[in-house]
Amino acid sequence: MKITRLAARLAVGAMATAVATAAVAVPAQASGTGSRSLAAVLTKDTSGFDRNSRDFDVLTAAVLAVLEAKPNSPVKVLTDGSVALTAFIPTDGAFRELVRDITHARTLPSEQAAFTAVAGLGIDTVENVLLYHVVPGATIDRKAALKADGADLTTALGSTVEVDVRHCWYGRQVRLIDADTNDRNARVVVFDINKGNKQIAHAVDRVLRPIDLP
């Protein structure tokens, strides 16, 4: 699928889903009181694009690109540590997998190439995808997430993701069911980033998709 066609589908699909979605309850919240923002956590890493697929260089670049183009974007909430929220933040590996999937490539792109492809979707589409990873008004830590099986979380985009807690040989695993019915669901691989603050994050190994892609 061409990037331009995909961008159009994402933009229209995300808008339609947001309009159709009603608010739902969120799980019990953690009592984070600190005011360090997630943006401060992300931008602390100044190494730039590298070969570490477990950090968040592509995500950080995407957030900065949106805020540069649209300073008053709702994504700006990530810079305000006084606002409680939970973000499911895709690793660099997650973005590389997304780009390989949508371009039907055989090999994973570099982080730089992954960001270039994501940026090529257009700022509005990137903004929508980022907002789909943010649950405003709730500080949901690992303990709360593990008790939230079946809960629908309303994202900053307006649409929802479902929490799916699975029992595995090593314990319990949290997955997130997005709007794409035929892709592998994202798994939380690191919990409680920025714990103790009102803004908390959990790293996921796939980018959440706000529409059902072919």
Automatic annotation (TrEMBL):
Q: Which Pfam families match?
A: Fasciclin
- N-terminal signal peptide: 1-25
Q: Which UniProt keywords apply?
A: Signal
Question: Looking at the record's lineage, which domain of life comes first?
Answer: Bacteria
**Residue ranges of the FAS1 domain?**
43-208
Quote the protein name from its UniProt record. Fasciclin domain-containing protein
